[in-house]
Amino acid sequence: SPLNNIWLAKNPWFETDVVPALQKRVADILKK
């Protein structure tokens, strides 16, 4: 959504720090 893109543009750290951490957690959960 456009709102989400605006939010991400204001919070670039979210994409660089939080997203990879979430992806790692999801991968760990899926491996179980």
From TrEMBL:
InterPro entries: Uracil-DNA_glycosylase-like_sf
Superkingdom: Bacteria
Gene3D superfamilies xref list: Uracil-DNA glycosylase-like domain
The name this protein goes by in its record: Uracil-DNA glycosylase
Organism, as annotated: Weissella confusa
